[in-house]
Every structure is written in structure tokens, then in C-alpha cells.
Amino acid sequence: MKKFYTLSDLRDWREDDPPIRLGVFGYPVSHSRSPQMQNAALRASGIAMQYARFEIASSELEEAFSLVREHCFVGVNLTAPHKLSAMKFLDEVDADAAAIGAVNTVTRRGEHLVGSNTDSYGIGEAIPAEFGRALAEFDVLILGGGGAARAIAHRCVAENCRHVRIWNRTESAALALAAQVGGNVEACGDLSAAVQDAELIVNATPVGLRPGDLPFISRDRLRADQLVYDTIYEPARTKLLEEAAAAGARTANGLSMLLFQGARAFELWFDRSAPVAVMRSALEE
Ligand code: NAP
Q: Ligand 1 atom 32: the closest Cα is on which residue?
């Protein structure tokens, strides 16, 4: 299997053994750890298929969907920048994904491509797995107003979290998201005050991916009774997590969210439970 495939590979599709019937579309995509996790799950479940990366630009997305339909794919995952723009090319979007306004998992059902959002499920499972307490028990501060923040905010409302604040670089996006999600979600402009009031802080921005990225919050603003979750998993310890750990706060990175969103996608594709322990070990390798 190649490190990643392109639209021209899909146009001139050659079957592998076992055949590739699943994948992730992104641009760029070579960083994605989904293949190692999903291929381990496929092997452990005795399913003779492979999962591959596809580097697909936004302008290629419509054709790529029609080709995976033609090649009888079971489904695909979507990563940046496709989670919002893909919706218009799908036949259906399920109720959760429609409410969130973003799709990260596509399932082929007959001739239809159906969009779902499993990032929301992913964070809902990741928080208790990491910290031993459900999302519902927290006053949450979400940093960001994009696709990941939307999925997290919706999950917080679905779980009836005590209070949810959203802070975003562009405040209008946080205001729009808070208004759209409803419930006890509010946008905040003052990050320092919001950090003080939060028990659980979740970074849902890409800030921290690059070595020079400065964290939004420094150690002197954080406390030992707070929990900090970064949806980034590469690097495993972002500067935000370093600052939080220095303040004595408990921390976790986004590998658990990746795991649980992937497990839920597997369940949608195959209508059977996912081998979560196998997927976790594959991710940690
Ligand atoms: P997105 O839709 O592009 O949204 C990015 C958000 O980050 C926007 O709110 C943007 O603010 C903010 N942002 C970007 N650059 C910034 C900067 N330099 N300073 C301050 N804010 C900045 O992206 P996304 O899909 O939500 O993904 C966000 C992150 O979540 C990514 O790092 C991704 O890896 C991670 N993620 C992880 C998982 C997982 O399974 N672990 C799943 C999904 C996403 P503006 O509105 O001001 O532009």
C-alpha cells in the first residue's frame, strides 16, 4: 500500500490484496494515524479489506466521492479541510451531523453516501476515559470555533454539562456557535476570566501543532484542580499541556478522541462493535 493515494490513483484504480475499501480524505493527509488504527481493527475482525490515506484537494472532492462509490468503498473519513464542505456532495447527512454542521465519517448505504459526525462521540468517550469523570460533570471552556469546537460543544449540550464557554480568536465565530448550539453555552471574550471559572479546558484549535506555536494560556493562569485536554495528539505534549502540567493540572492529548471517533466510524461501517483495545494499541505503537 502507498503512503497516500491521489485522485489520479482513484481514476485509474488498481485493486490491492486485500482490496482498499476504506480511507481518509484530507489535504494534507500523510500525517493521519487512522490507517494504523483501522487496519488493525480490520485484521482483528477478520475483514479482508484495507484502509488508506487519500490526498484530495477541495476542488477534487466531488469527483473523489463519485469514484469511491464506483469502486464500492464501504466508507471514508474526512479530515481538514473537508469536514464542512463535503456535506453538499453527500446524499444524506444524519441528524447529529446536520445539527453539528460537520461530517467526519461517510458510509455507503446502497447507492447513497451518508454523512455522520463521530468526533462528538469521540470527545464524549475520551474525557471519562482520561479523567474518570463524564463531560456532564464539568464547567467546560472550549478554545476554538471551528469544526472540532462545534462537535465538542454539541456533545457538551447533549450530555447536559453544567456550563460551557467558548473562546475563539474571532469572537464572532464563538458567538455564532454559542447561539446555534443553545443550551447553557455562551461565548466569552475575556479568556483570563473564562480560564479562572473552568474546570475542564479543551483546546480545539490547531495551535500547538507547530513547534513555534505559543499556548493561549500560561502556567500562572492555571491551577492544580483543573483538567486540560488538547485535541492535538502530534506532538503528544503540546506547549499548552506543558504549561498545564507545570501548574499541577491533569492533562491528556487527543489520541483518545481519535481512538473513539475511529471506533464509532468502524461501527457505522460494519454494524458491529469495534475492537477498541486493538485499535488503542495500534495507535500507541
Ligand atoms: P477548523 O475548523 O479549521 O477550526 C480551527 C479553529 O482554530 C478556528 O476556530 C480558528 O479560529 C482557530 N485557530 C486557527 N489558527 C489559530 C491561531 N493561530 N490562533 C488562534 N486560533 C486559531 O479546524 P478543526 O477541524 O476544528 O480542527 C481543530 C483542531 O482539532 C486541529 O488541530 C485538529 O487536529 C484537532 N482535531 C482533533 C481530533 C481528534 O480526534 N483528536 C478530531 C478533530 C479535530 P478563527 O475562527 O479565528 O479562524
A: 206
Measuring from atom 43 of ligand 1, which residue has the nearest CA?
148
In contact, 196 and 141? CB cutoff 8 Å: no
Q: Could you tell me the distance, in angstroms and rounded to a whole number, from the CA of residue 146 to the centre of ligand 1?
A: 6
Residue 88 is among the residues annotated as catalytic for this protein: no
Instruction: Give the amino acid at 145.
Output: G
Q: Is 216 helix (H, G, I), strand (E, B) or coil?
A: coil
- Give SS3 for 116: strand
Residues in CB range of 112: below 8 A, 6 or more apart: 91, 92
Tens of pLDDT, residue by residue over 236-278, are 999 999 999 999 999 999 999 999 999 999 999 999 999 999 9
Best probe residue, ligand 1, of 169, 255, 260, 283 (max atoms within 8 Å of C-beta): 169
Tens digits of per-residue pLDDT, 8-29? Answer: 999 999 999 999 999 999 999 9
The three cell numbers of residue 1 are 500500500
